[in-house]
UniProtKB/TrEMBL annotation:
<protein>
    <submittedName>
        <fullName>Chromate transporter</fullName>
    </submittedName>
</protein>
<keyword id="KW-0472">Membrane</keyword>
<keyword id="KW-0812">Transmembrane</keyword>
<dbReference type="GO" id="GO:0015109">
    <property type="term" value="F:chromate transmembrane transporter activity"/>
</dbReference>
<feature type="transmembrane region" description="Helical">
    <location>
        <begin position="154"/>
        <end position="183"/>
    </location>
</feature>
<dbReference type="Pfam" id="PF02417">
    <property type="entry name" value="Chromate_transp"/>
</dbReference>
<keyword id="KW-1003">Cell membrane</keyword>
<feature type="transmembrane region" description="Helical">
    <location>
        <begin position="14"/>
        <end position="37"/>
    </location>
</feature>
<dbReference type="InterPro" id="IPR052518">
    <property type="entry name" value="CHR_Transporter"/>
</dbReference>
<feature type="transmembrane region" description="Helical">
    <location>
        <begin position="86"/>
        <end position="110"/>
    </location>
</feature>
<dbReference type="InterPro" id="IPR003370">
    <property type="entry name" value="Chromate_transpt"/>
</dbReference>
<keyword id="KW-1133">Transmembrane helix</keyword>
<dbReference type="GO" id="GO:0005886">
    <property type="term" value="C:plasma membrane"/>
</dbReference>
<feature type="transmembrane region" description="Helical">
    <location>
        <begin position="122"/>
        <end position="142"/>
    </location>
</feature>
<comment type="similarity">
    <text>Belongs to the chromate ion transporter (CHR) (TC 2.A.51) family.</text>
</comment>
Length: 192
């Protein structure tokens, strides 16, 4: 009976939960940050209910402005929120460990076979799945991030700017500045 109680306490420990949740995400994190957004949504919003859709969008936005990948930044941020500094560390380790294991094992097993037709066909199938996951991520970001007329206008202007060759850093700075101006304007209107 004591062993079962101890096992339940371990499972309920937030640091163990953070590590195992991000470990699970890490094992299926093919295709980079945007392809993993549906995994984050499923595990962190629907299953664990640790964050909301809006918080996920904020984490993704913040992750784009800081060095590192979306995966590491999201894991560290959510880990810090849920389990303080140790939570950030174990969540980050959880997201990193699978990549290290998978790459090490694949290199030792199939290092000389990456150019083979079978491996290339498998990657073709994986890439097709990743395109769908990235499209789903775009849908989630649009649905969560464009609420109201002003964000929609900013979205259209940014889209136009990107297609016209405006540098992404300039677009991010202009987006932040425009968000500040809209906020300031709305405060002025509410005072009147």
């Amino acid at each position: 009976m004591t062993g079962l109680v101890l096992l339940n306490r371990v499972r309920e420990n937030i640091h163990v939960q953070l590590f195992t949740s991000f470990l699970k995400i890490g094992f299926f994190m093919f295709g980079g940050g945007y392809a993993m957004i549906p995994l984050l949504e499923q595990e962190l919003i629907r299953k664990k209910e640790w964050i909301t859709n809006d918080e996920l969008l904020e984490i993704i936005s913040f992750s784009q402005m800081t060095p590192g990948t979306i995966a590491i930044n999201a894991a560290t941020h959510i880990g810090n929120i849920k389990g303080k500094t140790l939570g950030g560390v174990v969540a980050s380790l959880g997201i990193i460990v699978p990549s290290l294991l998978i790459i090490t094992v694949l290199y030792h097993i199939a290092g000389g076979y990456f150019e083979s037709e079978i491996v290339q066909k498998a990657f073709t199938g994986i890439r097709a799945c990743l395109v769908v996951m990235i499209c789903r991520s775009v849908y989630i970001l649009i649905r969560s991030g464009i609420k109201g007329g002003v964000p929609f206008v900013v979205f259209l202007l940014v889209l136009l700017g990107l297609f016209c060759g405006v540098h992404p850093i300039l677009i991010i700075v202009a987006g932040g500045f425009s968000g500040f101006l809209v906020w300031k304007w709305s405060r002025l209107i509410h005072k009147i």
